[in-house]
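User: I'm putting together a teaching handout on how multi-component assemblies are represented. Below are the sequence lines for each component of a complex, exactly as they appear in our records. Could you produce the 3D structure of the whole assembly as structure tokens, so the students can see both representations side by side? Please keep the chain order the same as the input.
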Amino acid sequence: MSILKIEGVTKTYANHTALDNVSFDIPQGCIFGLLGPNGAGKTSLIRIITQITGADSGKIYFKGERLRPDHIKDMGYLPEERGLYKKMKVGEQLLYLAQLKGLSKEDATARIKTWVDRFEIREWLGKHIEDLSKGMQQKVQFIATVLHEPSLIILDEPFSGFDPINANLIKDEILSLRERGATIIFSTHRMESVEELCDNIALINRAQKVLDGPVKEIRDTYKTDTYQVIGNGQLMITSPDFEVLEQHSNHGIFRANVRLLNNTSPNDLLRYLIQRVEVHSFVELVPSINEIFIRKVTETHHA
Amino acid sequence: MHKIWLIVQREYLTRVRKKSFIIMTLLTPLLLATFMILPGLLISMSDEAETVMVLDESGLFEGKLESKEDVAFIPLAGTLDQAKLLYQETDNTALLYIPEMTIEEPKGFVVYGKKNISIQTQVRLENMLEKEIENQRYLASGLDRETLDKIKANVKLTAVNLSAQGEKDNNAIITSVAGVAAAVIIYFFIFLYGVQIMRGVIEEKTSRIVEVMISSVKPFQLMMGKIVGIAAVGLTQFLLWIVLSFIAVTAVSAAFGVDAAPSPAAQYAAGQMAAQGEEVASDDPTAMDNPQGQDEFASTFSDVKESFANLPVALIFGCFLFYFLGGYLLYGSLFGAIGAAVDNETDTQQFMMPITIPLVIAFIMSYSIVLKNPDGPVAFWMSMIPLTSPIVMMVRVPFGVPAWELLLSMGLLVAGFVFTTWIASRIYRVGILMYGKKVNYKELSKWLFYRV
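Assistant: Of course. Below is the structure of the complete assembly, with chains in the same order as your input.
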């Protein structure tokens, strides 16, 4: 079942089109990567989903219903431009934002307590936001985003501004949020950073959706049956079933990229290799989302 | 509604808890009290009983200059030089020298002091001497003081307003004061707190909290919450100022045992009045209890009180609240829109102009043209246009305004703030998410019709 269904959404500003007839589904309980270069229209789409702006045309369904203002309670949004009230204390700020999301004061207070314990930031509660470092502020903002336990969490460039340790902490939190049944939309232009995290993706370029679907399927579609072999010995491939794309040799250790032809399987290649050389490593070369994206974009440009 | 209430609370509490707010709120009444009390205190310090030594070579004033509680006379004999030497040795206030002369040609009076003789003392002495000389001249011409007092006339004019509501007393000064005071308060309130709204919006924009907020509440709710919250801050501050000023003034005057400082004119008058009373008393002891000056003062005072009583206080107060809130809402939303349209405070100038100008014009007009002719065409039109009516109408109300004019003006003001709030919310919802773009009026007018 899809938590969010986007149907033919179009949004134009005074002199440019931000989104042009974009449609895709976001399945429930997944981490969904909304990918695309800067200015592709990701933030415009997010702002339409969070009802900050409205679409010119097209429909959006949240949990099967047309998007309504009260759905906002069930969403959490971490914008790319982070910000909090500088003069407010951390505790008050979290309480205020949670209450605006419809939480009662008691519920909000209890949840703030569990989150600050989890992030070990209890002693910050009485501090003013302006006295915290940027990374600390981001943590507070992340808590504010998920405090009301929304079923849809939208994170716009969530790792920008985090050091590797805190980025990992947030990554773990995102995974545990998914385990608890939340759906996470993850918007970024740094495609390599989300490959390991995302279950599904949609690629947007120049206001248009380029492709979407489960990461595995997309990769399968774009993989080229190429394997990288590293081993010891003199590799000489003469079979017409295999094509050597690249080969290096150094101190008797070779590395070669081999493509399978004529519907042969990787095992056929392996069998062929084992008879001739000592195999140390055998890895399928899967195109990265980045490569797929670049390929896709150049394709559409040429078309 | 619940969300607006939360926003109002935040806007209110964060501002009220600020150190600057607390300091301003406490300091202003203290300063006010100090300014009111200090001059009075200083005067009373120098107002110790004065002792004036008198060297009377003419012999005309012998025994005539009677000592009072705050001024004592010490008659001297001998030459002027001896008297000066004698005076230098004492710490008496002054030495009054009356040379040889006749009542027909009184001149050559000199008063010597170790420091500057105050105007009050000088006027007082002059008056005493004048009165005494006049008395002696009356006696010489066969008149006495009592006859003269009977001849003296005192005319006071009571202004009565013959309007449709029937006769009523009308004191132009009191009426003007009531109206202008209300207008001034409204004017400053709009400016002080309108700018606060603008700053608040700019702060939300620059700290980038706004996108988080807008994903939880509607831009209109955010804007209204801010406007209402800041209005509450302003009202709190005014209320505290009134209460604290009252307490401070009362406490300080009780502690130092002084009244608020009288104005210099009042001091001069007091000097003359005291001198008058003294002379009357010295001339005719029975008249002491009812000196003319005091009588006059009392009647003026009761006139003032009466004029206040004749003002339609309930109406003025009601109008004040209405125009106060109406004007604030009208301008407040515009200030909010400016905050949304710019990135920082330095960019606000070009948009501030069209807002400031009607306010300033209304303010200037209200105490120049409107006050002189509260029912004239300028006053009428300016009290109808919503941008100027909160100030101009307040000046007119105490003079009496026909009900239809008042209702029309109020109706227009309501329509006006609904309209400006609409404009402001259109600009606001586009502007708060717009960064790094220098906006001009053409751009702003496009925002009005953006579909967001």
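A couple of points students might notice: The interface with chain A takes residues 3, 6-7, 10, 14, 18, 203-204, 207-218, 433, 435, 446, 451-452 of chain B (CB under 8 Å). The radius of gyration of chain B is 32 Å.
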